[in-house]
Amino acid sequence: MSSSTVYEATASAPVNIAVIKYWGKRDTKLILPINSSLSVTLDQDHLRSTTTSRADPSFEHDQLWLNGKEDEIKAGGRLATCISEMKRLRKELVEDKDPNAPKLSSYKVHIASYNNFPTAAGLASSASGFAALVASLAHLYQLTVSPSVLSLIARQGSGSACRSLFGGFVAWQMGSDPAGTDSLAVEVAPREHWPDMHALICVVSDDKKGTSSTSGMQRTVETSALLQHRIKHVVPERMQLISKAILEKDFDTFARITMADSNQFHAVALDTEPPIFYMNDVSRAIIALIVEFNRLSIANGQGHKAAYTYDAGPNAVIYALEKDIKQIVQLIVSYFPQRPSEFKDVLGLFGTASSDINTL
Ligand code: ADP
Ligand code: DP6
Ligand code: CO
């Protein structure tokens, strides 16, 4: 090919919202977790990162722009690790095998990424962001590798990112190898397995969170006794039970475990020294509403109809089945009327995994 060939690729990745939360690392450099976790990846057409990578011999440095603003790629940092791991795969899997393949691994890359939702606000932007970064480089470098292999690299950008390489219901197996070769994402069930499952995102605040996930979980590992109980005696059984509930499409069990795990994650945040509060009064009011809604449906013999979960921020994600979504949206909108986005402390915006929800 001529020297004017443009080597460029674009990929998108959606966010995933954990139902069994990852919180704590046993190795902070390799990003190895202290517990396995499980999430649902939202559909592509909602919250997502879109990343374009270009390799060119004229580039002097690897550079990345996030939402139009340059983000420094620190030597030895997470972005640098992901980029160099992808270059290593390019060299090993393509260039070393085919002497005619262009030596893209020796070129610097320029990367531009956009999130179509608030960044660093507890809506898993690091998950979609690093998954899209790795996917776009895989495309650029023409790597034919499985999503699990890519998940090993995305994990080193942000732990939760490894799960966004798959759609549907995904587990991140914590693994046991100190080198991290078995700490990767695997599919529990594809999206089509349970198409009735939907997620309603209630953006309570799009502010950047006060304590990043990275520093918050590190403080919890260092100070919380409750976290030790959680990882030994709670998460392993929940992983089994929720995987089974997903395979059997048992929403009642799925909902009970999801809410219990969100509650315990926020309890370990509170058990941290000094304590971390990710939820606010609006978050707690949404919990109260969902608890009451479920109480009535259980009394009617219908079991749980909605499951709330909160990541490291005040924003609610409500999992529910298609048949119940309309009623839940109406309930929430009636208590928290939508307001212009400058009202940061009230519900501002809805997104969802269901494409028809925006028209309700
Ligand atoms: P969140 O709850 O949004 O995941 P985190 O504190 O875990 O918040 O991570 C936010 C960080 O993730 C950002 O400050 C940025 O460094 C990184 N990030 C977010 N989006 C992207 C993206 N599209 N590409 C690369 N990195 C991203
Ligand atoms: C509460 O993956 O953002 O969303 O690995 O340090 O980048 P780093 O943290 P991150 O933590 C996510 C925490 C969580 C739970 C989850 O997604 O499992
Ligand atoms: Co994150």
Automatic annotation (TrEMBL):
SUPFAM superfamilies per the UniProt record, alphabetical: GHMP Kinase, C-terminal domain, Ribosomal protein S5 domain 2-like
Name of the protein in its database record: Diphosphomevalonate decarboxylase
Residue ranges constituting the Mvd1 C-terminal domain according to the UniProt record: 199-360
Cited InterPro entries: GHMP_kinase_C_sf (IPR036554), Mev_decarb (IPR005935), Mev_diP_decarb (IPR029765), MVD-like_N (IPR053859), Mvd1_C (IPR041431), Ribosomal_Su5_D2-typ_SF (IPR020568), Ribsml_uS5_D2-typ_fold_subgr (IPR014721)
GO CC annotation terms, alphabetical: cytosol
Reactions this protein catalyses: (R)-5-diphosphomevalonate + ATP = isopentenyl diphosphate + ADP + phosphate + CO2
BP terms from Gene Ontology: isopentenyl diphosphate biosynthetic process, mevalonate pathway; sterol biosynthetic process
Top class in the EC scheme: lyase
Domain Diphosphomevalonate decarboxylase-like N-terminal per the UniProt entry, residue ranges: 13-185
Alphabetical list of Gene3D superfamilies matching this protein: 3.30.230.10, GHMP kinase, C-terminal domain (3.30.70.890)
Pathway participation: Isoprenoid biosynthesis; isopentenyl diphosphate biosynthesis via mevalonate pathway; isopentenyl diphosphate from (R)-mevalonate: step 3/3
EC number from the UniProt entry: 4.1.1.33
Molecular-function GO terms, alphabetical: ATP binding; diphosphomevalonate decarboxylase activity
Keywords: ATP-binding, Lipid biosynthesis, Lipid metabolism, Lyase, Nucleotide-binding, Steroid biosynthesis, Steroid metabolism, Sterol biosynthesis, Sterol metabolism
Family per similarity comment: Belongs to the diphosphomevalonate decarboxylase family.
Source species: Agrocybe pediades
PANTHER family cross-referenced by the UniProt entry: DIPHOSPHOMEVALONATE DECARBOXYLASE
